[in-house]
Amino acid sequence: MRRNKVLSIGAAALALGLTMTACGTTKEDGKGGGSDAACDLKLAFFGPETGDAAGLGKPIIQGAKLAVDQYNADADCKVELVKYDSQGSPDAAPGLARDVVGDESIIGVVGPAFSGESAAAGPIFADVGVPTITPSATNPTLADNGWDTFHRALGNDATQGPAAARYIKDTLKAASVFVIDDASEYGAGLAGIVEKDLGDAVKGTDTIQQKQTDFSATVTKVTSAKPDAVFFGGYYAEATLLIGQLRDGGWDGTFVVVDGVKDPAFLDAKDAAEGTIITCPCIPDTDPAVAQFAKDYEAAFGEAPGTYAAESYDAANIFLDGIGDGIDNREDMLKFVNDYDEKGITKQLKFDDKGEPADVHVYAYTVKDGAIVPEGEIK
């Protein structure tokens, strides 16, 4: 990582006896606003720590925490990671965003985690100039709002949706598909893309609601249509119940879902979940590029990295690289992030003028023998 280069340069400079402050920056060195400010910096996690979507928030929190803990192990001035628990709710997002911008020691946000809360909080961050890097919010329209502060560390649904449709057509060779969404900005957006790309293969559509538990009406529509595959745009809480009720209703086709379902809680569906295909713009923890990260993560948290832990680690490290360079204010950090172009563990980390990543990949996973197993990149 680039931060390691910065630290090695700093160590060499100290060895040469250069005069430096305890924090490594001064007002005169052109990097920051003073050593005192540089010693009181924070990064924020913005997303679900509790609630129905907490399972998706946990690995994002832990990925960012690992990056901060590793940075602090070698730093004279520690960086604090503070958590703003949105519970994944767009309604809670504006108030939390105002809390973030009110703490001027926060110079970067890892998140918001979900698309709906990103849309609600984005204007507030943009108005004040707080740079954000989401490791998981994938709705394409987020990059079309003109927010200079918005950045995304993964491919959006305009890449995941076509990849999912391609997998359904080319790999599953499904002749008929039923498309379901959960009415969220994220789920409905993805379902719309997949429906468009599949064209005449779509034999029916339906919309459910988040927190819904009885899907009997949807099950009736699906079993009547008799599709080879069902595509679901939404999150794991509903997907877990939906696939169980579809199997109980007699449907035996292939269930295809997206990254919002890639959580161990989906495996609570047990045998009903077997064979489910999950698409995700998240790198598998078996990839050689993330092998050391996965080892460090498991040592720190006692479990393998979950969905978007690695992307969160990369996002946090971009901010930490800036802090390592002596940046201690939002304005300079925003410029640093906008200009960033370094190798991360998940990809080359570089953003276009809309905040989208320059390097995008989408992967397929399958549920096999009670585990979520990577199949490989969808080309």
UniProtKB/TrEMBL annotation:
It holds the Pfam family Peripla_BP_6. Residues 1-22 form the signal peptide. Keywords: Signal. It comes from the Bacteria. The keyword Zinc does not apply. InterPro entries: Leu-bd, Peripla_BP_I. Residues 41-370 form the Leucine-binding protein domain. Belongs to the leucine-binding protein family. This is Branched-chain amino acid ABC transporter, amino acid-binding protein.
